[in-house]
């Protein structure tokens, strides 16, 4: 449970930074930002693995770049679920996916992945 909370906080930081640097990504309040991070975590845990499997041939043909579109779709799905979080268009979603991924990667390298099990 602690790992999920930490991941949600890192995701919230990534979404906050996305809203600051990517045009078309916005949130109305801190509560909606935290809710978006939690919902994105749940969407990534449930829907994303199915989408990755279904789009595997296209991902292989594009040498993995299509995963950016899958990640953008997960962020767009999160925005669709929540009223206080908005992503306007595919390019805004891709930008948010890149920024959130970089923030998550930096946090993982700073704080370590910990033991999985």
Essential attributes:
117 residues, mainly alpha
What does this molecule look like?
- The chain contains 5 helices and 2 strands.
- By secondary structure, it is mainly alpha-helical.
- Strands 1-2 form a two-stranded antiparallel sheet.
- α1 (2-21) crosses α5 (90-111) and α4 crosses α5 (90-111).
- It starts with a helix and ends in a 6-residue tail after the last helix.
- The model has no long low-confidence stretch (mean pLDDT 91).
Radius of gyration: 14 Å
Our estimate of the beta-strand percent is 5-15%
The DSSP helix count reads 5
Structural class: mainly alpha
In whole angstroms, how far apart are the ends?
13 Å
**SSE pattern:** HEHHHEH
Largest sheet: 2 strands, antiparallel
Strand order of the largest sheet: 1-2
How many β-strand runs? Answer: 2
Taking all residues together, what is the mean pLDDT? 91
Would you identify the regions where 5 or more consecutive residues have pLDDT less than 50?
A: none
Work out the helicity level. Answer: over 70%
Shape: globular
Outline of the structure:
By secondary structure, the protein is mainly alpha-helical. The protein has helices at 2-21, 30-54, 56-61, 66-81, 90-111, and strands at residues 25-27, 85-87.
